[in-house]
Amino acid sequence: MELQNIKRVYLIGIGGIGMSGLARYFAHLGCIVCGYDRTSTDLTRELHNEGIRIIYDDREDWIPMSFQTPDACTLVIYTPAIPRFSEIFNYFRDRGFTLYKRSQVLGMISKSKFTIAVAGTHGKTTTSCMIAHILKYSGTDCSAFLGGISSNYNTNVLFGKNDIVVVEADEYDRSFLTLYPDIAVITSMDADHLDIYGNHSQLTESFRQFASQIKANGTLIFHEDLPLMSGITYSANGPADVKAQYIRVEDGDFYFDFKNSDTVINNIKLGIAGVHNIENATAAIEVALKLSIHPDLIKGALESFKGVKRRFEYIVKSKEHIYIDDYAHHPEELRAAITSVKRLYPHKKLTTIFQPHLFTRTRDFADGFAEVLDMSDELLMLDIYPARELPIEGVSADMILDRMKMLNKRKCGKQEVVELVRIEKPELLLTVGAGDIDQLVQPLKNILENV
């Protein structure tokens, strides 16, 4: 497939964060872009407003005429989350189209470019957004394919005028093995996606293979805790090659100093909260220094960094109420979010609303979820968001609740959660999860802003 010949692109599962980035990329190049997704969301409505046609019924007769004959000018992309019984998926497959996974197309786009790839079971979205922002802010420039909506740019894809591209390297379905980066960052390799990998050792091996695909004379930067053999290690307050030091909170903002073998940057103010984000920033700084970006520009970029939508995002921040929303859906992500909240607001009662994501993840990590959620003062638990999965007998949100030691916990529906928040008006509220819990954000914001 020669991407320069493409004039028409159809995306099956266009509403996903990675797929929508590709949709925007090809639309920017002037291609006719269409797609299908199961549900209408804020993101698909934005794509529609940008001139991209989207349907929400899985019916082949809604596919435009111009996409009904395979040729060298038509590209069909699908997400692995699409079920194989999809009518649209089977229409293209049965008529001789070559169907490409999102990751394969990302590999094709980045193949001829200087590629900075950020991988990890968590931390990769924020880190890749930080790197892209430093490059844009400093004038170095880049294109970027991000796994979330950057709050600085209000999009998940950036277009640059040079050959540098920043990509979020997704480990799900081994997608990141289509990439051959010049610089790779690996933030974490915790057990996850065991429905794909079977066990943690297979996941670890996949990350090792990704690390081995760095181009000759390329650079690997990874967290010091990871079982990788060679490269540049980073951490917060650890014995790594690259480290954040003297981490402190001043007037609600995080500050730290950066140090590597030949550069010290003092008094860096980070535009977003959390020790875990200081670690992400440490990796991003090392990437920027490898590209010869001046430390003063790096400092300015990190202070002006606004984060990523649904990554430790302040929804309400007033004297009476603090409300933070986070995408965390793995025990270690939850630990990072809750620890950061409690460090920032140690004297406030923390009410957490959590929606488990996937039956398999709930089954595999019920003990871990219970331990971390017990760090809250009150818990409101939603039912599991199934996403691509069918129910598993005996697996429910109660698996987590039953393992928790906290007494102030209850299982609720979404409307019940809204009513409880209306009644209790918590002083410190955290919503966490990767499903449709984001539908609660605006109603809860309205309640706490209008007290």
From TrEMBL:
One of its GO terms (cellular component) is cytoplasm. Pathway: Cell wall biogenesis; peptidoglycan biosynthesis. Its EC number is 6.3.2.8. It is an enzyme of class 6 (ligase). Residues 118-288 form the Mur ligase central domain. It catalyses: UDP-N-acetyl-alpha-D-muramate + L-alanine + ATP = UDP-N-acetyl-alpha-D-muramoyl-L-alanine + ADP + phosphate + H(+). One of its GO terms (molecular function) is ATP binding. InterPro entries: Mur-like_cat_sf, Mur_ligase_C, Mur_ligase_C_dom_sf, Mur_ligase_cen, Mur_ligase_N, MurCDEF_pg_biosynth, UDP-N-AcMur_Ala_ligase_MurC. PANTHER family: UDP-N-ACETYLMURAMATE--L-ALANINE LIGASE, UDP-N-ACETYLMURAMATE--L-ALANINE LIGASE-RELATED. Belongs to the MurCDEF family. This is UDP-N-acetylmuramate--L-alanine ligase. It comes from Mucilaginibacter ginsenosidivorans. The lineage of its organism: Bacteria, Pseudomonadati, Bacteroidota, Sphingobacteriia, Sphingobacteriales. The gene is murC.
